[in-house]
Amino acid sequence: MLNQELIQPLLERAAALWQTAIDVVDPGGQVVASSEPSRLHFYHPEVLGLSLTEDGVRVQGESYYLPLVINDRVAGWLVWQGGVKGEVATLLQVALEEILAAARRRDQQYFTAREEEALVADLLAREAASRVEELKVRALNSGYDLNLPRAVIVLQLEPRENRYFNINLHLGYDVTEEQLKEEILEQIKGDLYLTAQDLVAYYGREMLVIFKAFLELENMGRLYQALEVICRHLYELIKDNRLFAVRVAYGSIVTEIAGLRQSYQEAAELIALGHSCGHNSGYIDFEDILFEALVCSLPGRLKGRYLEPLYQKIVAAGEEGIQLLETVEACIDNNMNIKQTAEQLYLHRNTVTNRLERIKLLTGLDPGTGFRALFWLKMLAVYRRLVQTRDEA
């Protein structure tokens, strides 16, 4: 399609230099752009009989015609009257061809991206399991083999906010965000860690999803290690953008279309959990938030019966309670090694031992009695941080 808005300014400037009217005509003979807008939709039936030559085609007195060729096909004709030198006309011809070719590439990329977004949305819908064959055909028409095992990688692009005088100011207009999102999409698609079988598209406003394909499942451990490497790499690739905070996670490797939704939900829930735990950006590793995940998955009755009463005791003790809890958590993380804990916290070993005794008196949980007490003390420390993060938000 010949885009009038793109080529109109160039025609007007060339016409002013040439001192003649210049038309761009589609292959059917209709004027689609002109240096004189009144000539729009004027008909040039003679172009139907023109053929490609090395030089301009001169017909009917002073009329000249040059073809506009895009992808080896005539997309239209440049038409003018008068004795303009061929070299000058060729410059305008080349300029118009480049403009139109770039516009066509942009349109093709746009429509391809929209088709892939629609495919991703359908693959992640609840009804995907009942539309397997249809979705496989659609994917195959776009070049994707859904018979391959896949894992869903999710990149959340959350707009950054500038807090200034307690007013939230977005750092860019929506149009700028959309432009940057398209650039990020192309950057991800062109990355060496991704192949032609990896379906990449936006899902909703903030989620960029990748259906990462694998050829075999012989060594699942190595595949998950590869996913971790890819996620960390993708974060490093786009983390320096100025408009979005980036969080990355992945879900399970699945072999059926119905499993893609589950894989996506695992990754999205991990990102949400990481955010609630204070991970504002970066790759979200499940191992890093294992205890946070356990606390969040506990039934309300267990939180209310065990964690909340213990938490209230810590709150009632003020700064001392927080200090004691942080010390015992550090000791648990160091396998109850008093020396390592003291070195980590820059405390005397006797101070660490004393605090362990005091946490026992405060909570009734003795760190020296074994796993059960240590488990609940660790969960209590994590619970306090989650409550604090929630209150600050």
UniProtKB/TrEMBL annotation:
<dbReference type="InterPro" id="IPR042070">
    <property type="entry name" value="PucR_C-HTH_sf"/>
</dbReference>
<feature type="domain" description="PucR C-terminal helix-turn-helix">
    <location>
        <begin position="324"/>
        <end position="370"/>
    </location>
</feature>
<comment type="similarity">
    <text>Belongs to the CdaR family.</text>
</comment>
<feature type="domain" description="CdaR GGDEF-like">
    <location>
        <begin position="133"/>
        <end position="270"/>
    </location>
</feature>
<dbReference type="Pfam" id="PF17853">
    <property type="entry name" value="GGDEF_2"/>
</dbReference>
<dbReference type="InterPro" id="IPR041522">
    <property type="entry name" value="CdaR_GGDEF"/>
</dbReference>
<dbReference type="InterPro" id="IPR025736">
    <property type="entry name" value="PucR_C-HTH_dom"/>
</dbReference>
<protein>
    <submittedName>
        <fullName>Sugar diacid utilization regulator</fullName>
    </submittedName>
</protein>
<dbReference type="InterPro" id="IPR051448">
    <property type="entry name" value="CdaR-like_regulators"/>
</dbReference>
<dbReference type="Pfam" id="PF13556">
    <property type="entry name" value="HTH_30"/>
</dbReference>
